[in-house]
Each structure stands twice: as structure tokens, then as C-alpha cells.
């Protein structure tokens, strides 16, 4: 049984394994340190205590929110646990956020303080809304500025986690102690391929701490079993197996893009880590890569389904045979979960037919363990729970043996390398460009990233609404470059195609059902400008956080 709070789960791990390693960062991924980073449970407890005293001395107390822009570094987890011990809610911020995005989140979240990396201080100061009472401090600070904002979080709130929604701007999911406890107890109780061994597991993950997977799943699993969290700054395909081997990892977390990249590398004698590595846990592996990965690297990829909103209460895992490898199967629903597949009219889908997946926890409290709601958006929360079921927006079908298979998403969300990108958010950024009269953004399949961002644009100006090939190529590159000033690099268009007009419905709305087919056709016939080569992560030295 898990403890009542995240901090109490950590305290129990300290008592049970004080000399064990809690956090580890392998040397190839620790660009910010001269070598590997290792923090034991006892040492982490001491450092967390010191952080608690610093926060308390400055006047931060239960109900305050503190944003953490610390990337995937060990310091993030130490600050997160210190905040939790004090009853302060954490708001993780990604290091790749652009100033406009950071400003929107800081304004919305009602945070009292941002603790950030030294290289992000200027960006955060530039993004800080005027007269908001928001303090900023580098992570290495010996003292913190006093809060100028009263607590805004309800008692028991652990984190405010932003996730993409269909309305454009990311929504803020309120996550409480029950959420984290449920995530942890569910994960360590799955069993099968995902069985954990008390005090012996070392879970390596490159996933960002701004996502529920790294913030809750991997952290809570290690706390509840006294294991070691091996946190990479991000996924490095060329050094992945070196990191796995040097960290003595026993399991790993992945997104669909990772198996694709690892399979693309030339075979090596270093590929086989099966003497120690027992399983990979994740979602979205390409069906063409699933069996090939397991055959080559001799480790099973365990597919699962969950959402930030559903946490551990609606979490389905293909951790037992038959796993239906290569068929997008994510397992059989656990007995604690009620679920339905419904067609677009809301009626239950016929047997074997796809439908939107609706979920709720079985028993008297159907929302227990789910998110508490969207911050400052009661209407969206109510819509998500329409009829007493959580509407996932994901389309699935049920197999004859009761297994569920992922089919598609109802939501207008692009899933690129595990990042959810709202099409409307990209459209809003594009429409700020004077050369863009109208636009529509959709997903297009991508061999490496799963999906990429495709933009149809009606141009404005001398080139006309549908410029010729030469003028169009230059204009597309310029629009993408200017979009980069408004959005994180992974959200900007990878393809742009110009149109004289956009497809519309009878009610004069964009006919989104036509966009994906149109995007695929434009690429196939060479009518789209391929800008993928210019879509890359810039270093901070190049001016992007």
C-alpha cells in the first residue's frame, strides 16, 4: 500500500534503503556535469531537507505554486520532493518553451516563484507577465525572494501539468496526492512482464519531466520499490545502449520514435543487453518495428494506454500474453476499470467495430485517481466527464479475446515524438504572420517521428494566395522561420503547402476531415515544401532555450 503523499513515499524508501542509489544520470547524457551524477536516498533526503528550509525561510507555504524550469536534471526531483514535503504545488516547465508560451503558462498558473536553470533566467524574466507578483530564482540560489502572491492551489494539489487540448492552448491538469499514489500502486502492481523487484530495479527514461510518465510513473515506481531512477536529459540514439549498460538499467521507458531510431542504426555487438534488461514500457511503437525490435535487441516492448487526465485509474497494459505484437494492441482493461466504445452518435459500438474509448473507475467514486479537473476551465472538465464517463478522444476496437487496439484519435492533435501538439495552437501562431491570410494545420505520417506538422496556407501579398514553386519555397522557409519565434521547435510546420482556399464545410468551418488526405496527396505529388531539415532543436548558444 502506498503512502499518503509523494514525500511520505520517499521517506519510506529512505528508511528502507538509506544507502541505495535514488537518482543516476549517466555520463553521456550529463552535459551539464563533468561525469555521471549519482544521488543516494540518504543524501537526497539531506539535500531535500536543506531546500525545505530555504523555501520555508523565504515564506513559501502550503498552497503556493512554484514553477520548475530545471529540465530533466536531478535537481528537478529534489526540488519537486521538497515542495511536496511542504504542501507546495509544482508546475514543471520545459526548457524548450518559447517566451510567448512561457508567459502564457506563467500567467495562467498563478505561480509565486520560478526556479530555473541559470541559462533560463533571462528567458523567464522576459516571459514574466507585468505586475503579476512573480519571483524568479536560479536553482543554485542560496536564498529565495519572498513570495508576493497568496497561495492559489487547493490543499492536496501536487502539480499542475499542462497537456494539449483540442481548443488550441494547452490545458492545465490539476493532479493531487491520490493521483500520484494511484499511479504508483497501479504500476508496481501490474505484474507479468512489468513485474518490479524490491530494491533491485533501475529504470532508465529519457522522457521529459513535464509529462505524466516521467513526473509520476517512473518516479513513483522507484519510490515504492526502493529502486533507482536513471534520468536522461533526452533521448540520444547513438549513446542509448551505452547509457543502458553503464547505468545497469533493468527496464526502460520509451515512445514510438525510439525503437524506430534504434532499429535504423547499424547492428552492433553492443545491442544485446538482455542479461540485465527485462522490459521496455511505453506506447506508440510502429507495428512494423515491434517484432523486429524484440528480435534484434532481445527485450519485450510492453505497450500501454493512459492519459495525463486518467492517471493510474484508467491505465491499460499489454503485460501478459497474448500481447498481439505489431497490431497496436495495448492490452485488456483491468477489473478496476469500466469502459465503453461508442460511435459518433454516442451509441455503443458494434462488436469488433471501432469507437471512442470512454472510461471511469469501477465503484462508488468513478473519478478517484483521475485528474481533479482543468484549472480555470470548469466547462472543459464537465465536457470531458459528460454522462459520467471520461471521454478520451481516442478511438479503439475490441478484439475477440477482450484486448483493446488503438485505431486513431478524434482530437485534432498531432503526436510528434511523443509530444502532443494542438493544431489550433500552431494555426494561431501562423496567423500572426503578415504573409498568412488563412491556414489549416493537420498531422501527416512520418517514418521517424510518428507524425509531423503539416500546414496548408493561403498566402497574402505580392506572391498571391498560391505562389509559384520558386517563390513558394522561399516564402515557406520564411514563414517557418518566423513561426519559430513564437513556438517551440517541435511545434513548427515540417511541411507547408500553399492553396488558393481551404476546404470548408457547409457552415463555413474548415473541413478537417479532408486535411490529412490532402496533406498526404500534396507530399506524394511534390506539391508541399519539405522543411524538415530546418526543423531541429537549437542550442541555447544559438538563442533558443
Low-confidence stretches: 539-545
Query: Looking at CATH, which topology of the largest domain would you report?
Result: Rossmann fold
Measured by DSSP, the beta-strand proportion falls in: 15-25%
The share of residues in helices is 25-40%
Number of helices: 14
CATH homologous superfamily caption of the largest domain = ANL, N-terminal domain
User: Could you report the average pLDDT, rounded to the nearest whole number?
Assistant: 91
Number of beta strands: 26
What integer value in Å does the Rg equal?
A: 23 Å
Question: Can you describe what's shown?
Answer:
The protein has two domains: 6-396, ANL, N-terminal domain (Rossmann fold), CATH 3.40.50.12780; 422-542, GMP Synthetase, Chain A, domain 3. It has 14 helices and 26 strands. The chain has helices at 6-16, 41-58, 74-85, 99-109, 121-127, 177-189, 212-225, 240-246, 257-264, 287-297, 378-384, 423-430, 469-483, 515-524; strands at 21-25, 37-40, 65-69, 89-92, 113-116, 135-138, 157-163, 171-176, 202-205, 228-231, 251-255, 279-283, 301-305, 316-317, 329-331, 337-342, 355-361, 373-374, 390-398, 404-409, 413-416, 419-422, 436-446, 450-459, 495-498, 529-530. The strands form six sheets. The chain has an eight-stranded mixed β-sheet, with helices on both faces. 50% of the residues are buried.
How would you summarize this macromolecular structure in one to three sentences?
With 545 residues, the protein is an alpha/beta fold. The protein has helices at residues 6-16, 41-58, 74-85, 99-109, 121-127, 177-189, 212-225, 240-246, 257-264, 287-297, 378-384, 423-430, 469-483, 515-524; strands spanning 21-25, 37-40, 65-69, 89-92, 113-116, 135-138, 157-163, 171-176, 202-205, 228-231, 251-255, 279-283, 301-305, 316-317, 329-331, 337-342, 355-361, 373-374, 390-398, 404-409, 413-416, 419-422, 436-446, 450-459, 495-498, 529-530. The chain has 2 domains: 6-396, Rossmann fold (3-Layer(aba) Sandwich); 422-542, ANL, C-terminal domain (GMP Synthetase, Chain A, domain 3, 2-Layer Sandwich).
Amino acid at each position: 500500500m502506498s503512502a499518503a503523499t509523494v514525500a511520505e513515499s520517499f521517506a519510506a524508501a529512505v528508511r528502507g534503503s538509506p544507502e541505495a542509489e535514488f537518482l543516476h544520470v549517466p555520463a553521456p547524457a550529463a552535459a551539464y556535469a563533468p561525469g555521471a551524477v549519482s544521488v543516494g536516498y540518504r543524501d537526497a533526503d539531506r539535500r531535500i531537507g536543506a531546500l525545505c528550509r530555504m523555501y520555508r525561510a523565504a515564506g513559501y507555504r502550503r498552497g503556493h505554486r512554484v514553477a520548475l524550469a530545471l529540465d530533466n536534471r536531478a535537481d528537478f526531483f529534489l526540488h519537486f520532493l521538497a515542495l511536496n514535503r511542504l504542501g507546495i504545488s509544482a508546475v514543471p516547465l520545459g526548457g524548450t518553451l518559447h517566451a510567448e508560451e512561457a508567459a502564457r503558462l506563467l500567467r495562467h498558473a498563478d505561480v509565486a516563484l520560478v526556479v530555473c536553470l541559470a541559462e533560463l533566467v533571462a528567458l523567464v524574466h522576459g516571459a514574466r507577465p507585468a505586475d503579476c507578483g512573480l519571483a524568479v530564482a536560479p536553482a543554485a540560489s542560496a536564498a529565495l525572494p519572498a513570495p508576493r502572491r497568496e497561495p492559489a492551489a487547493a490543499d492536496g494539489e501536487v502539480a499542475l501539468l499542462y497537456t494539449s487540448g483540442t481548443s488550441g492552448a494547452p490545458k492545465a491538469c490539476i493532479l493531487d496526492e491520490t493521483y500520484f499514489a494511484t499511479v504508483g500502486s497501479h504500476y508496481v502492481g501490474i505484474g507479468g512482464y512489468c513485474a518490479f523487484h524490491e530494491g533491485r530495479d533501475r529504470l532508465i527514461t529519457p522522457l521529459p519531466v513535464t509529462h505524466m510518465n516521467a513526473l509520476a510513473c517512473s518516479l513513483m515506481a522507484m519510490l515504492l520499490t526502493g529502486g533507482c531512477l536513471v534520468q536522461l536529459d533526452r533521448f540520444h540514439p547513438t549513446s542509448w545502449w551505452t547509457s543502458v549498460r553503464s547505468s545497469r538499467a533493468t527496464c526502460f521507458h520509451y515512445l514510438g520514435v525510439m525503437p524506430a531510431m534504434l532499429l535504423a542504426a547499424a547492428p552492433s555487438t553492443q545491442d544485446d543487453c538482455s542479461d540485465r534488461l527485462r522490459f521496455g514500457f511505453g506506447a506508440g511503437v510502429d507495428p512494423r518495428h515491434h517484432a523486429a525490435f524484440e528480435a534484434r535487441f532481445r527485450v519485450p516492448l510492453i505497450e500501454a494506454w493512459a492519459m495525463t487526465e486518467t492517471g493510474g485509474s484508467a491505465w491499460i497494459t499489454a503485460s501478459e500474453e497474448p500481447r498481439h505484437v505489431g497490431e497496436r494492441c495495448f492490452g485488456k482493461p483491468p477489473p478496476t476499470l469500466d469502459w465503453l466504445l461508442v460511435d459518433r452518435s454516442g451509441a455503443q459500438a458494434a462488436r469488433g467495430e471501432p469507437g471512442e474509448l470512454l472510461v471511469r473507475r469501477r465503484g462508488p467514486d468513478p473519478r478517484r485517481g483521475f485528474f481533479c479537473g482543468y484549472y480555470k476551465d470548469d466547462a472543459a472538465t464537465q465536457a470531458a466527464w459528460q454522462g459520467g464517463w471520461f471521454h478520451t478522444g481516442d478511438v479503439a476496437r475490441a478484439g475477440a479475446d477482450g484486448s483493446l487496439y488503438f485505431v486513431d484519435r478524434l482530437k485534432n492533435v498531432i503526436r510528434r515524438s511523443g509530444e502532443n501538439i494542438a493544431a489550433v495552437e500552431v494555426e494561431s501562431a501562423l496567423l500572426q504572420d503578415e504573409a498568412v491570410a488563412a491556414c489549416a494545420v493537420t498531422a501527416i505520417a512520418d517514418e521517424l517521428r510518428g507524425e509531423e506538422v503539416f500546414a496548408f496556407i493561403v498566402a497574402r501579398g505580392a506572391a498571391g494566395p498560391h505562389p509559384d514553386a520558386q517563390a513558394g519555397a522561399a516564402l515557406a522557409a520564411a514563414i517557418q522561420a518566423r513561426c519559430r519565434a513564437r513556438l517551440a521547435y517541435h511545434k513548427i510546420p515540417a511541411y507547408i503547402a500553399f492553396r488558393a482556399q481551404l476546404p470548408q464545410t457547409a457552415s463555413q468551418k474548415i473541413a478537417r476531415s479532408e486535411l490529412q488526405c490532402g496533406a498526404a496527396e500534396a507530399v506524394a505529388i511534390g506539391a508541399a515544401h519539405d522543411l524538415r531539415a530546418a526543423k531541429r532543436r537549437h542550442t541555447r548558444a544559438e538563442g533558443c532555450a
